[in-house]
Predict the structure of Glycosyltransferase.
Amino acid sequence: MAAGDKPHAVCVPFPAQGHVTPMMKLAKVLYCKGFHVTFVNTEYNHRRLIRSWGPQAVADLPCFRFATIPDGLPHSDADATQDPAAICDSTMKTCLPHLKSLLDRLNDDGDGGVPPVTCVVADNIMSFGVDAAKEIGVPCLLFWTASACGYGLPPLPVPHGRRPRASQSMHAADEAQLTNGYLDTPVGWARGMSKHMRLRDFPSFIYTMQRGDILLDFVMHEVSRTNAATAVILNTFDELEPTALDAMRAILPPVYTIGPLSLLLERLAAAVPDPGVVVDAAALGTVRASLWKEDHTCLRWLDGRAARSVVYVNYGCVTTMSNQDLVEFAWGLASSGYDFLWIIRPDLVKGETAVLPPEFVESTKGRCLLASWCEQEAVLRHPAVGVFLTHSGWNSMTESLSAGVPMMCWPFFAEQQTNRRYACTEWGVGVEVDGDVRREALEATIREAMAGDKGREMKRRADEWKEAAVRATLPGGRALINLDDLIKNHVLLPKC
């Protein structure tokens, strides 16, 4: 297929690592199916990629190119995730005209070998992509990068008195609801949700004590616009979240499950391309999505460890904590007696530098590796990893399930609380870590997860889910069927 004849997908991720990563996988999947791809980073993230990997990280390849738009925030060269409330508010209010201008420029670049734009694939919380696509007369797919079980909660009607009250100012009674056991109230009435849900398992946005909370208003606004999309894509598989997916399909445009994306991409990159499609898998492998430099010594360190002997700890790209919490984690890990690989981002400790006690460093010498970032999928697939202490972000959850690794769940933000509940009660692969982490409790949980009866059952269930994830991406599996339907039913292609 000549470059000028290819369908052209413009992929627009929300500018945080947990959204850029799955959108990059989806963009590569489309490339493997014969699309010309333009991947749109914000200028801030574009600079971060170059600092981490060099200019080659954003170098254009034949039929896979990069573009940028401003995010509307003041210029910064910090090597950190931007403030969630600030970036959500700014992208929602300022990015539409910049995306429209980019689409116009792409459509005017026919002489440069760039085919006309045929579809926009936007993050579900970058829903201005729907308006930009409408302006040039092409379909827009919204990519929900979180779980299906974390999707429908914000717009669901909540019966009076069933959640902490929102008020103009925080009253003592309202604040007490967060700590007095009220959040353990069972919630069995939420459409499409687990019958094991408690109030504390709903996304963190609903705990706001103030009307006009930026994040709550943002999520409500973005989710309410989903019906304007041509279709919705999710990085999940039907067997994992059937009830939640049924609820979504009852109220939304066509919903396509094409996950786990990591397994699907591997399958397509290694397969014989469709007739007329040229795939340069080696070149595609040089395209990076990680905004932090990955420490590849992690894999070499794991090579020297026995099978299932290592605790892997990574809190994702947004989680922050106090140094006191960090120290509690440190001594819980140290006292467990197990080797551990611990990812401590430069911006993990809120407002200060992470400081670990010298005694901790001395006592764990030889059985601990600290790193600032790593190639997580490769780490999770390493046979030395026995359990994953995670923030329960959806990328981490799907990668862990795909690798058959059980989880210790310490959620921080958004729908991570919901993911934790499903991992622990629906999928049987997780155990909860108390939000107010204490070293003694963490030590006990690690030992149970690594060698106790609960841990053995978690591993058995994790292996079952790994097999189910692989089946979904095999030829004839639901992920490949849905992807082909997405393309062949002209959702992603211009209609003749």
